[in-house]
Amino acid sequence: MKEITRINHAGLRVRDLGITREFYEKLGFVFIVGPIGPEPVAVMEHPAGININFILNASDDASEKNILSDMPVKHTGFTHFALEITDVEGVKSTLASHNIPITETINLPDGTEFFFIRDPDGNVIEFHKPAG
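^ thats the sequence. predicted structure below, dont judge the formating
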């Protein structure tokens, strides 16, 4: 459909707004509003225009694994979102300064680089640096 212009936001189910907010602020996101609505939802946005809605109704069972990424049976659904970056070493340095571990790094022959982290609820985030 030609009427679609871009992705407006991503929705992530999380357990604790305070923990989530602190983590995403380390990535440069700014708290906008929340909790609001019947779910309830909180909204954060990055200055680059990336908006995330945090759905605040996840189970409190911290032993749960990410059903889309950590289980042997591969279920359908969104497995991660990718944030395009301009400086791999700068992002890695920022992550290290906040003790956020990188879980996997991939370098393609064309020069594309990407690596992954997990948020406090196990949601996967990719940092993607295109070739060139």
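The chain has a mean pLDDT of 91.
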